[in-house]
C-alpha cells in the first residue's frame, strides 16, 4: 500500500503521524511510505532520519495526499485540507466528528474512509489509541493548571503543593478514566489535596485502592459537583463518551459558585467539552476568562510535548496501521472488531451511531459497507 504522512497544519500541532521507526516497520512489509518534508521536524525527527528508514520525502502536502492510498495523521483535517482528500482514500487519525459538523459533512462529501483513533475499541471497552494521548493530557492538565494558578496568569496565586505551614491547593477531577487517573496521580504527587469524581462505584473503588492518601473519591452527581467546585482551586474536566459529545457537568450559572481565579482545564474540549463555557483554544492563545474564572481549553494539549507524544502515539497506532496496510481496510475491519469500531464515515455514509446522533444525520450499520 502507498502511505502518506503529511505535515500537521493545525495551529501549534507539532506531532507527526508516524516516527522513522514506524516507517521502517512499514518497509518490512514492502509498503511505500511518502513523508512531507519537515513533517517530523517539530517532534525531533529529521527528513534524513525518515529517508534512512526507507521513506521518500515529498515537498508539498498536495503531493502527499495525491499519491497516498492511506493517510496517517494525528489531528483531523482542517478546512484547507478537505479538497485534497480523494474518494475512497483511507484516513487514519483522530477525528472527533461529534464536535465538528462541518468536518463530518466534508468527509461525507469527499467520499473518504475515515477510521478514527478515538473509537477503536477493545472487547473490555478500553480505547487503545486514546490511552497514550489521554495519559499525556491528564498529566499536562495539572502541569498547565498549576501554571495558570499563578497570579500573573490571573489565577488565585496558589502554589499547588503548598509549603510547610501553608495548605496546598484543592484539585477537583471530574472523571476517573485514563485522563482523570493520570491527572489525580500528578496532582497528588505534587502535594495537592485531590478529589476525583466518577459515576461508576466500581471505578471509584479501584481508584480508592490505588491512589495515595491525599486523593479522595466521591460519587459524581449534580449536588456533589456543585459543592466541590465551590472549594476547588483547579478543576480538570476529564469526561469521555466514546465518539459522542461530552455531557455538560458544569454549566454557565455554576461559575458564580467558584471563587475568582479558579482555573478550569477541560481536557474533553475536543469532544465538545464537559464545562459549558469551554471552547477550543490553541497553544498560542490557551486561556480566556469568564466571570473571573480562568479557562484553559487547548484541544491538542499533547502537541506541546510532541517528542513524547509522537513516540507514545506511534507505539499504539502502528500495529493497527500495519493491519490496514497489509490487508486493506475492508478485510482488516472484517477480521478485527477493534478496527471495525474505528470506522466513522465511509462511502459518504455515517457508520458510527454517536456521530449520527450528534448531528441528527442518517446512520447505517457498518456491516453494510464491508
Short description:
The model has no long low-confidence stretch (mean pLDDT 96). The chain has helices at 20-28, 47-53, 61-67, 79-82, 101-110, 131-148, 178-189, 201-210, 222-231, 306-327, 329-335, 337-340, 353-359, and strands spanning 2-5, 32-36, 56-58, 70-72, 90-93, 113-116, 170-174, 193-198, 215-219, 234-237, 263-266, 287-290, 293-296, 343-346, 349-350.
Tell me what you see in this structure.
- By secondary structure, the chain is α/β, with parallel strands linked by helices.
- The chain has two domains: 2-120 and 306-369, Rossmann fold (3-Layer(aba) Sandwich); 131-304, Rossmann fold (3-Layer(aba) Sandwich), CATH 3.40.50.720.
- The protein contains 13 helices and 15 strands.
- Helix 6 (131-148) packs across helix 7 and helix 10 (306-327) crosses helix 11.
- 34% of the residues lie in helices and 16% in strands.
- It has an eight-stranded mixed sheet, with helices on both faces. Strands 9-8-7-10-11-13-12 form a seven-stranded mixed sheet, sandwiched between helices.
- The protein has helices at 20-28, 47-53, 61-67, 79-82, 101-110, 131-148, 178-189, 201-210, 222-231, 306-327, 329-335, 337-340, 353-359; strands spanning 2-5, 32-36, 56-58, 70-72, 90-93, 113-116, 170-174, 193-198, 215-219, 234-237, 263-266, 287-290, 293-296, 343-346, 349-350.
- The protein is globular and about 65 Å long.
- NAD(+) binds at residues 134, 198, 203, 220, 239-240, 267-270, 298-301.
- Its EC number is 1.4.1.1.
- Residues 4-137 form the Alanine dehydrogenase/pyridine nucleotide transhydrogenase N-terminal domain.
Amino acid at each position: 500500500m502507498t502511505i502518506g504522512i503529511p505535515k500537521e497544519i493545525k495551529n501549534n500541532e507539532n506531532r507527526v503521524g508516524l516516527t522513522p521507526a514506524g516507517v521502517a516497520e512499514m518497509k518490512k512489509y514492502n509498503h511505500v511510505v511518502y513523508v512531507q518534508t519537515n513533517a517530523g521536524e517539530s517532534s525531533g525527527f529529521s527528513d534524513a532520519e525518515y529517508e534512512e528508514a526507507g521513506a521518500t520525502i515529498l515537498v508539498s502536502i498536495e503531493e502527499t495526499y495525491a499519491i497516498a492510498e492511506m493517510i496517517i495523521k494525528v489531528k483531523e483535517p482542517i478546512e484547507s485540507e478537505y479538497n485534497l482528500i480523494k474518494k475512497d482514500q483511507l484516513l487514519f487519525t483522530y477525528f472527533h466528528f461529534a464536535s465538528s459538523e462541518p468536518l463530518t459533512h466534508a468527509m461525507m462529501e469527499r467520499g473518504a474512509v475515515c477510521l478514527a483513533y478515538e473509537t477503536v475499541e477493545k472487547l473490555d471497552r478500553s480505547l487503545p489509541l486514546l490511552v497514550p494521548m489521554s495519559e499525556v493530557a491528564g498529566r499536562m492538565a495539572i502541569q498547565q493548571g498549576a501554571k495558570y494558578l499563578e497570579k500573573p496568569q490571573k489565577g488565585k496565586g496558589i502554589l499547588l503543593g503548598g509549603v510547610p505551614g501553608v495548605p496546598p491547593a484543592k484539585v477537583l477531577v471530574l472523571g476517573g478514566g485514563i485522563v482523570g487517573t493520570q491527572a489525580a496521580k500528578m496532582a497528588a504527587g505534587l502535594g495537592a489535596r485531590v478529589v476525583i469524581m466518577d459515576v461508576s462505584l466500581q471505578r471509584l473503588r479501584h481508584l480508592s485502592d490505588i491512589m495515595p492518601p491525599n486523593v479522595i473519591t466521591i460519587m459524581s452527581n449534580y449536588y456533589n459537583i456543585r459543592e466541590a467546585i465551590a472549594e476547588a482551586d483547579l478543576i480538570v474536566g476529564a469526561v469521555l463518551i466514546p465518539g459522542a459529545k461530552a455531557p455538560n457537568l458544569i454549566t454557565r450559572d455554576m461559575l458564580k459558585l467558584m471563587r475568582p481565579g479558579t482555573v478550569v482545564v477541560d481536557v474533553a474540549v475536543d469532544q465538545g467539552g464537559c464545562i459549558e463555557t469551554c471552547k477550543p483554544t490553541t497553544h498560542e492563545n490557551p486561556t480566556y476568562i469568564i466571570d473571573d474564572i480562568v479557562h484553559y481549553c487547548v484541544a491538542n494539549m499533547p502537541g506541546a510535548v510532541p517528542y513524547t507524544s509522537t513516540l507514545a502515539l506511534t507505539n499504539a497506532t502502528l500495529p493497527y496501521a500495519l493491519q490496514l496496510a497489509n490487508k486493506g481496510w475492508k478485510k482488516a475491519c472484517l477480521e478485527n472488531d477493534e478496527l471495525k469500531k474505528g470506522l466513522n464515515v465511509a462511502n459518504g455514509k455515517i457508520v458510527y451511531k454517536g456521530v449520527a446522533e450528534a448531528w441528527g444525520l442518517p446512520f447505517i450499520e457498518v456491516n453494510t459497507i464491508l
